[in-house]
Amino acid sequence: MLDFSKPGLAIFDMDSTLITIECIDEIAAIAGCKNEVSLITERAMRGELDFAESLKARVAALCGVRRAQLEQLFDPIPFTPGAQELLHWLHQKGWKTALVSGGFTWFAASVSQTLKLDFCLANRLVWDNDVLTGEVEEPIIDAQTKAECLVQWARAIDVPISQTLAVGDGANDIPMLTAAGFGVAFCAKPALREVADLVIDEPDLMAIVRYFEQQTINTQSQAL
């Protein structure tokens, strides 16, 4: 069990975890191809498709979208209920926080800045002036990269893996949750639920806090 009286690292997926939307699907709506892209996203999140190849296929459909059009998706940022409160709680506990996403830096940077995260990594879209080219920079941030970031960032701040919390929703979060000291599947796909230490179906990230606070109460009661 995690010990919140000691330093730790909490690492989060972004799309459908810290925020309520899948950014690539919403960009696709702007481009007029949301249904096509959403179907690929859904299959990728279930683990039916290679993430890197599916991402390239989806990004190709976004060619021609202008930077100004993206701003409407984050005005305001569509945070998941409880996201800001959870991050505040973790910071009060002295924990470091991080975001690693198969989504895009254009969105992740805003989320990271607003939530005052310590680490942030996401994929980079390629622009021609202010227009998307339909390409994504290499290397692709995929499932294995997420797990590697957890290990690297924990080492960088001298936190044992046993003091790491990972939260995600899709199949590409499986290695990250498996690598973490404690993994939370948040409103997640079946494949991720199978490997999680905790499954949260309530669309409120503060449910994580309530779980750990209840565990503390139970432990104290057993000690009496």
UniProtKB/TrEMBL annotation:
A Pfam family of this chain: Hydrolase
Keyword terms, alphabetized: Amino-acid biosynthesis, Hydrolase, Magnesium, Metal-binding, Serine biosynthesis
EC number(s) from the headed UniProt entry: 3.1.3.3
InterPro entries reported for this sequence: HAD-like_SerB, HAD-like_sf, HAD_sf, PSP
Active-site residue numbers: D13, D15
Keyword hit for Magnesium: yes
Family designation: Belongs to the HAD-like hydrolase superfamily. SerB family.
NCBIfam families: HAD-SF-IB, serB
Protein name: Phosphoserine phosphatase
Organism the protein comes from: Pseudidiomarina gelatinasegens
